[in-house]
Amino acid sequence: MDHRLEDVIALFDGLFQPTFGTRLVRGGDEPLYLPADEASPWHRVIFARGFFASALHEVSHWCIAGARRRELEDYGYWYLPDGRDADQQRQFEAVEVAPQALERLFADACGLPFNVSVDNLGDVRVDREGFRARVEARAERYLQEGLPARAAAFRRALAAFYHGGEPLAAAVAAGRALLAPEARPGSRRPETVD
């Protein structure tokens, strides 16, 4: 199965450009989320270096961010690059469990392998298997309790396209069917962070 960036971008944009004014954009070395501004009328989920996994990961962060967070650059969160100390690494892993769980579900919907990212090449010892277990447990909880609406819509569109063989327009329509509750003003779904 061919995993072209143009397809995942088309699926995301088809779902979320008309409903949330948001586009998925191929970027440079670092991922970034930018709200609409004078340079662009669209909110932009920018993934790193044309990596398919980066696109899925950055979309997972967007799917969890609440409306207030989506008005802030990088959702208003801190990010420390490689070389975090043990406490900083624990904080990083705590906020990465849910997005990486969604990323795993997105990768499954695409028929791709998933690898957790502890994202630290410093001197701190990292319990990769422990983190993997927490991500897997959270993914299973999402499957049992339900995904946030935007994540469910994206996952359905991915599965329809990659597993179901649907054309892009039909896959987008399948995902849009799940957006109606969240697109209504004032509605909320669990796991969105304002």
Structural account:
The protein has 194 residues and is mainly alpha-helical. 51% of the residues lie in helices and 7% in strands. It has 7 helices and 3 strands; from the N terminus they run H-E-E-E-H-H-H-H-H-H. The protein has a 3-stranded mixed sheet with strand order 1-3-2. A hairpin with an 8-residue loop joins strand 2 (32-34) and strand 3 (43-47). Helix 3 (86-110) crosses helix 4 (128-145), helix 3 (86-110) crosses helix 5 and helix 5 packs antiparallel against helix 6. It is globular, with a radius of gyration of 16 Å. Residues 184-191 have low confidence and may be disordered.
User: What do the pLDDT scores average to?
Assistant: 88
Structural class: mainly alpha
Radius of gyration: 16 Å
Strand order of the biggest β-sheet: 1-3-2
So how many helices? 7
Taken as a percent bin, the fraction of beta residues is: 5-15%
Described by the principal axes of the CA atoms, the overall outline is globular
E-strand count: 3
- Through-space gap between termini: 37 Å
What's the order of the H and E elements? HEEEHHHHHH
State the helicity in percent bands: 40-55%
Major sheet: 3 strands, mixed
Low-confidence stretches: 184-191
